[in-house]
Specification:
Number of helices: 20
Number of strands: 0
Mean pLDDT: 83
CATH class of the largest domain: Mainly Alpha
Largest sheet: none
Shape: globular
Helix content: over 70%
CATH architecture of the largest domain: Up-down Bundle
Number of domains: 2
CATH topology of the largest domain: Na+/H+ antiporter like fold
Structural class: mainly alpha
């Protein structure tokens, strides 16, 4: 068997484009970090400046020569794009903690209901106002509606975690409640996204098919948790290199096999990360060393993934500023309203309700993943893709700056409600 290789010129073009993407993501990530904004926003901006709304406007031939110099270059870059998404979700799964402390259960359950179901129910009545402007080539009523509603309700675990860490409240009761609620919410929303993808890729609508997808998605999470508890009782020793190799084998094979039953690689990656994390509960040495995978991914594949998202944004030709403002306001208001109103049933301070409501609005990584996956499957068009990314960036920055302001004003508010 002979594997076809790239010519020296094509190889040069691939590595040149990757190097420029990574450099731009790095530089803008540093700039945004200096401005105390989430690094991920800077990495997307690094790609944005190279795309159709940036340098391409004044030097289209140069950008085309760098990123599309031969026919298959786009597909090669898309491979790195997929790897970035896979490792991002793998790490998200590994860092996921579902922590039900007795004193927090009532707030978690109330906030989950308010931040998830109220925005989804109210958002349903606005779908028709946006559908014609935002639906993609392969989108249908069901797939578009689900993506639209997920986009309104989704909350970011990675970005929120980073914000909590940066401002020094990661170990507070407030952070524990938000992260646990967001984890449960995201699991529920990934089920809906798997159904949306299945609806968009299937030739005909089938209730049985979609129920099967929902069942498999839930069953896989339960199975992973049970399997992890069983494996965790077995004492085993692995060399670090062997453990990493087997982790990658499990990751890639799971993606391939579950893709056959219409489970998206994004969700599979999350499950594998969650499985490995729970398997290693009693092995602190390997648990600490797996952070090297995280460090490598966040220094290479993931910045390239975010930069490639940025380079696809087009605010010049396929974007309506009015529609963006309308959707952004709708999403933020409904999420804030749902979270705030639900918490009125609990005896906590008004400012704590506001803090929870604004924080649950931070769409961050999951919002970006949702946009990129829905765009990849052509459920949404370029205009909605750009709108979702910008809404995600705005809501994440708002949450970051608001929490920093509250911390400087009164840090005790994150411990006592």
């Amino acid at each position: 068997m002979k594997i076809e290789s790239l010519s020296p010129d094509n190889l040069t073009a691939v590595f040149l484009s990757l190097g420029i993407l990574l450099l731009s993501a790095f530089v803008f990530g540093k700039i945004f970090t200096f401005l105390r904004a989430p690094k991920v926003i800077g990495e997307i901006a690094g790609g944005f400046i190279l795309g159709a709304s940036g340098i391409y406007i004044i030097a289209p031939e140069l950008i085309t020569q760098i990123f599309l110099s031969f026919q298959e270059q786009g597909k090669i870059l898309n491979t790195f794009y997929q790897l970035g998404l896979i490792f991002l979700m793998f790490i998200a799964g590994f860092n996921t903690q579902i922590n039900f402390e007795k004193q927090n259960i009532k707030i978690i359950s109330t906030l989950f209901f308010g931040a998830t179901f109220i925005p989804i129910i109210l958002g349903y009545f606005f779908i028709d106002y946006f559908k014609d402007a935002f639906i993609g080539e392969k989108g249908n009523d069901l797939s578009f509606s689900l993506v639209f509603l997920i986009a309104i309700a989704v909350t970011s675990i990675p970005v929120i975690s980073k914000i909590f860490f940066d401002i020094g409240i990661i170990k507070t009761r407030f952070a524990s409640i938000v992260l646990t609620t967001s984890t449960i919410q995201d699991l529920f929303l990934w089920i809906l996204l798997n159904i949306a993808i299945n609806a968009a890729t299937s030739s005909s609508f089938s209730i049985e098919n979609n129920l099967w997808t929902a069942f498999v998605t839930i069953a896989l999470f339960v199975l992973v948790k049970v399997l992890a508890n069983i494996v965790n009782k077995i004492h085993f020793r692995f060399e670090s290199i062997d453990f990493f190799t087997l982790s990658f084998v499990l990751l890639f094979l799971a993606i391939a096999l579950l893709n056959i039953v219409h489970i998206n690689p994004m969700y599979t990656s999350f499950l594998v990360g969650f499985l490995i994390k729970n398997t290693l509960q009693n092995n602190l040495e390997l648990k600490e060393k797996i952070t090297s995978i995280s460090d490598f991914s966040f220094s290479c594949f993931i910045p390239i993934y975010f930069a490639l998202i940025g380079i696809q944004l087009n605010v010049i030709h396929e974007f309506s500023f009015v529609m963006f403002v309308m959707f952004c306001l709708l999403a933020c208001v409904l999420e804030f309203f749902g979270s705030y109103v639900s918490l009125l049933s609990l005896k906590i301070s008004n400012i704590s309700r506001v803090n929870f409501a604004i924080t649950m609005n931070a769409r961050g990584g999951p919002g970006i993943v949702l946009a990129s996956v829905a765009f990849y499957y052509q459920i949404i068009n370029t205009g909605f893709f750009t709108t979702l990314i910008l809404t995600t960036l705005f809501s994440s920055m708002l949450a970051g700056y608001w929490l920093r302001y509250q911390k400087n004003k009164n840090s005790e508010i994150f411990y006592r409600f």
